[in-house]
């Protein structure tokens, strides 16, 4: 009987640790009763990159304010275009992208 409980507990543990690819932090639409929605984008220009940050302030279901700032960043240069296997697709290079990390406190 003790082995049955052990087997049942092990099975329950394995089932509860299923591989779920859903990211619970991703939000389809912000809570518009009182929130700050932030959008960050990087656009490649000639020799620089433009970092655009947009903050939308939502109060009681209505957009209260919008703040947009644009900053100029040094370009990271170029890299060859590659497919999923790492093979170079063409002789043309593409601009390197910045990695964006956000800390919310």
Question: Which descriptors would you attach to this protein?
Answer:
three-stranded antiparallel beta sheet, 1 helix, two-stranded antiparallel ribbon, single chain, mainly beta, 105 residues, flat
Structure explained in plain terms:
The structure is a single chain. By secondary structure, the chain is mostly beta strands. It has a domain at 31-94. Helix content is 14%, strand content 47%. It is built from one helix and five strands. It has one helix spanning 2-16, and strands at 34-44, 48-59, 62-74, 78-82, 88-95. Strands 1-2-3 form a three-stranded antiparallel β-sheet, with no helix packed on it. A two-stranded antiparallel ribbon has the order 4-5. A hairpin with a 5-residue loop joins strand 4 and strand 5. The N and C termini lie far apart (50 Å).
Question: Secondary-structure blueprint of this entry?
Answer:
Elements: H1 2-16, E1 34-44, E2 48-59, E3 62-74, E4 78-82, E5 88-95
Antiparallel strand pairs: 1-2, 2-3, 4-5
Structural Rg: 23 Å
The poorly predicted ranges are none
Neighbour order of strands in the largest sheet = 1-2-3
Element-by-element helix/strand order: HEEEEE
Shape, please? flat
| Helix content, binned percent | 10-25%
For the termini, the CA-CA separation is 50 Å
Largest sheet entry:
3 strands, antiparallel
Please give a quick description of this structure.
With 105 residues, the chain is mostly beta strands.
